[in-house]
UniProtKB/TrEMBL annotation:
Pfam families referenced in this protein's UniProt entry, alphabetically: DUF1797
Protein name per UniProt: YkuJ family protein
Record InterPro entries: YkuJ-like, YkuJ-like_sf
Domain of life per record: Bacteria
Species assigned in the record: Leuconostoc gelidum subsp. gelidum
Length: 87
C-alpha cells in the first residue's frame, strides 16, 4: 500500500506564492494575480525595499496594505473564499 502525501491547503499555496515574491531577485516590485474560476479576484504587490504588501481587491474596489505576510495570506484566502461563494 502506497500512502500519498496530503495535498497542500489553499492557505499554504498562497503562502508559497507570497514567499516566492519575497525571494524573487528580478525587480524591487513584485506583482501576482490571484484568480478563481479563471477570473482575477485580486492583485498583490510587494515592495522588497519597504517590505509593504498591497492588495488590490477588484470586486469591492478596495486596497489594503500590510507589513506581515501572514495577514496578507489570510486576506487573500478570505477574498478568494468569498469570491467562490458568489459563483
Amino acid at each position: 500500500m502506497v500512502l500519498e502525501e496530503p495535498h497542500s491547503s489553499d492557505l499554504n499555496q498562497i503562502l508559497n506564492r507570497l514567499r516566492a515574491m519575497i525571494d524573487s531577485n528580478d525587480s524591487q516590485y513584485q506583482s501576482r494575480r490571484f484568480e478563481a474560476f479563471g477570473i482575477e479576484a485580486l492583485r498583490v504587490e510587494y515592495d522588497q525595499l519597504t517590505g509593504i504588501w498591497t492588495i488590490h481587491e477588484h470586486r469591492e474596489a478596495r486596497q489594503f496594505q500590510f507589513d506581515n505576510i501572514d495577514l496578507v495570506a489570510i486576506e487573500i484566502y478570505d477574498v478568494l473564499h468569498d469570491f467562490k461563494l458568489i459563483f
